[in-house]
Amino acid sequence: MKSKVLVVDDSSTSVRVVSHLIKKADKTPISVFSLTQALDVLNDQASDEFLCAVVDYTLPDAPRGEAIEAVLKYNIPVIVITGRLDNNTREQILNKPVVDYIPKQNAQVYEYLTRLIVRLERNSKIGILVVDDSLLSRNAAVNLLKRHNFITYEAKDGIEGLEILNKNPGIKMVLTDENMPNMSGLEMLVALRKNFKKDDLAVIGMSSEGPSFLSARFIKSGANDYLNRPYCHEEFFCCVTQNIENIENIEAIRRAANSDYLTGLPNRRYFFHRLENTTPSAQDCVALIDLDFFKKVNDTFGHEGGDQVLKDVARLLASHFSQHLIARFGGEEFCVYFQDTPVEQAKASLEEFRIAFSERASWINQQPIKCTTSIGLSNKFEGEIDGMISFADLALYQAKQLGRNQIVVDELQANTQII
Fold first, then answer.
1. pLDDT computed for residue 1 by the predictor
2. From CA 258, how far away is CA 269, in angstroms rounded?
3. pLDDT top residue among 109 and 392
């Protein structure tokens, strides 16, 4: 079920534009034209159904921003839109615990609303750690982060900060003061960079006291950014959001580089990258899985049908071997690496998969497509993973020669049914 966004604005044009942007963010707009109507909706529907509310500063029955506080009482994040651009109005808005405000200026500013709504949902899964010995400063940063739905953690010095960081893998950013007892911000930064790269964990240094070159020291020591206190609301969020989005963009690039586009499984490149420093042991084995007569599937049902079979076999592989390393090697060939798994145990798991796949059908244009797999399994190796894969490839070749739809272990025929 899509999250709802409450839109409170007396301008039908503005409501139409904002509703379009909310739908663009894949949310459901609930539009009203006054504070009275908004309260009727909020009293009638559960507040946790709403991701946020977009509220006009000036309404017929709430001319001085009264609607903002009224909606905030329902614990719903509020984004304010306003046609008033004076500094006094801006300060009045930002003095309230709102997400942000958007002036009714141009299309580009309105597009920012889409980003805000998308971020509010994403932020609910992102942890940010604030490290500061000043309770006042720490609370100020935490309260701002909570407005944007971030999961927040707090530490009073670098030592406590490192402990929290190591226990909570969902933390993607650290905001740290410099001047702290026990371990300073810079000392903590140097320590955490031994385990966390800049592309995986963003660190923003902060200070209101210190030499002018402190920002350079933070950046040179591995920080992603720096904030001078006092900072304004907008500066704070621009800095936080930009660095979070940088990490997300890098994660997206990694996924694209390491994943097979069609099936979503890891690709051959990622498979060998994961195992480049691994020396197989006697308890490791590898399986090569190949679809039987796949060219016939493509010739009969077209590439759309072939793609559907590939996606279905990938889903089944992911379901059966979630604890192991799976990859699409290319075409109709897949690979599973079993670490610390006796070959007989791996064989039994592969047999369950083989039978399950042979008994199911893929569907394209209401037509069933039946397919089977041949599997080569090996636990032999010559010091490197490539050697083990070569033996599995020979076993796969034997499985094909012996009639397909079966498992061959190393160079010996497995005790399975031959079709």
1. 64
2. 7
3. 392
Cα→Cα distances 312→187, 273, 305, 326, 330, Å = 50, 25, 11, 14, 15
Residue at 79: amino acid letter? I
SS (H, E, C) the chain: CCCEEEEECCCHHHHHHHHHHHHHCCCEEEEECCHHHHHHHHHHCCHHHEEEEEEECCECCECCCHHHHHHHCCCCCEEEEECCCCHHHHHHHHCCCCCEEEECCCHHHHHHHHHHHHHHHHHCCCEEEEECCCHHHHHHHHHHHHHCCCEEEEECCHHHHHHHHHHCCCEEEEEEECCCCCCCHHHHHHHHCCCCCCCCCEEEEEECCCCCCHHHHHHHCCCCEEEECCCCHHHHHHHHHHHHHHHHHHHHHHHHHHECCCCCCEEHHHHHHHCCCCCCCCCCEEEEEEECCHHHHHHHHHHHHHHHHHHHHHHHHHHHCCCCEEEEEECCEEEEEECCCCHHHHHHHHHHHHHHHHHCCEEECCEEECCCEEEEEECCCCCCHHHHHHHHHHHHHHHHHCCCCCEEECCEECCCCCC
Mean pLDDT of the chain: 92
Q: Which residues of 341-370 are buried (b: 16+ CB within 10 A; e: fewer)?
A: bebeebbebbbebbeebeeeebebeeeebe
Q: In what order do the strands lie in the sheet with 225-228?
A: 151-155, 127-131, 171-177, 202-207, 225-228
Determine which of 18-27, 129-138, 185-194 has the lowest per-residue pLDDT on average: 18-27
Tell me how far apart the alpha carbons of residues 205 and 178 are, in angstroms, rounded to a whole number: 7
Q: According to the model, what pLDDT value does residue 419 have?
A: 36
Among residues 397, 385, 314, the alpha carbon closest in space to that of 408 is found at 397
Residue 263 token pair: 């099936």
